[in-house]
Design goal:
The protein is globular, with a radius of gyration of 21 Å. Strand 5 (about 135-140), helix 6 and strand 6 (about 165-170) form a beta-alpha-beta unit. It is built from 14 helices and twelve strands. Helix 3 runs parallel beside helix 4. It is α/β, with parallel strands linked by helices and about 375 residues long. The chain folds into two domains: about 5-10 and about 250-380, Aspartate Aminotransferase, domain 1; about 15-250, 3-Layer(aba) Sandwich (Aspartate Aminotransferase, domain 2). The protein has a seven-stranded mixed beta sheet with strand order 2-8-7-6-5-3-4, with helices on both faces. It has a three-stranded antiparallel beta sheet with strand order 9-10-12, with no helix packed on it. A two-stranded parallel sheet has the order 1-11. The protein has helices at about 15-25, 35-55, 70-80, 95-105, 125-130, 155-165, 180-185, 225, 235-250, 250-275, 310-315, 335-340, 345-350, 365-380; strands at about 5, 65, 85-90, 110-115, 135-140, 165-170, 190-195, 205-210, 280, 295, 320, 350-355.
Amino acid sequence: MSVYLDHAATTPLDPSVLEAMMPYLTSEYGNASSVHRLGRTARFAIEDARQQFAHLIGAEEGEVVFTSGATESNNFALKGTLKPGDHFITSLAEHEAILEPAKHLQKQGVEVTFLKPYPNGTVSAEQVENALQVNTRLVSVMYVNNELGTVSPIPQIAEICRKNGILCHTDAVQAALFRPRMDILDVDMCSFSAHKVYGPKGVGALYIRAGTPVQTTLIEGGAQERRRRGGTEAVAQVIGLVTAFEQTITKAEEHLLYLETIKAHLINQLEVYLGGRYIWNTPQDGTPTSPHILNLSFPPVNDEPIDGEMLLLNMDMAGFMVSSGSACTSGAVEPSHVLQAMGVPEKTAAATIRFSLGKHTTPTHIEAAVLALARILDRMGRKTNG
């Protein structure tokens, strides 16, 4: 059996998305900047896709910029608005695609406040408000945390920003199931990615509210994307992005209900086979969370930490693909920066598993994965009820 439980890292390309992309990978291969028929076909396809995507997220088509993915979108949002002397507020629980640009900007003279999340991994609107300064220019807080699944109060944070004349950005990569609409979130900028919603890798989008003062061009060398991003447009990828988002948002309620059921089954199976001999990192106290992510850690046994890397490798060899956290950092030896910011002890954080579920995950997959985990922990010297 081979079971994929790492959907927060990436998702399989949906066959219908591939089908929508295929004409632009084969017969309709024109450059969207060309004036001939193939070029015009590509240009019309991109602009139709932009209009469709804008409609899906409650925006105007001129407010959507297609990018190479959420990392670029996040960089665009930060580097396009912040300059030396500005103050930027974010949290220590953000993705590296926010934290690393923030550290870079800090070296360029931008003042940065990194908010410490609460022990349940959340950041509150009150924390943001208390951190405001006279020179605060931008606030960026993730909508759904990619390691924990916690949901941040983005509308409340955006309202505080609006009242104080401050720009607000959110990374909504893991939030597609919540059907993020810009007219409801009320943010100035929002980042999206296709490959988290059964779309292709290498494409994303940045919503920029009309009138938001953002640097006109982050990537120079062409007039594409209305002079906001130079470079030949990846037409097939853009079509894939919009097709994947349309399917995800259209079926969001159905998928949410299904994933809630699968998540509840996973929690039950963990209790049955592991007897609660773990700590939850994804809060179980009623804190709003997404049903597709569940994160837990295994404390040391007799002060001897569980080898987290060996745990993941053993799961992989048994046919179960899980991770320890962000796909952009889980290859590192160090424990998750998110868990460390929450105050999880280092020896505990070192043995962490993030289960991230998808629309093809079944109860049978869950049962087999938890049973395998119990057996692996037994072999590694961690007594369980399995």
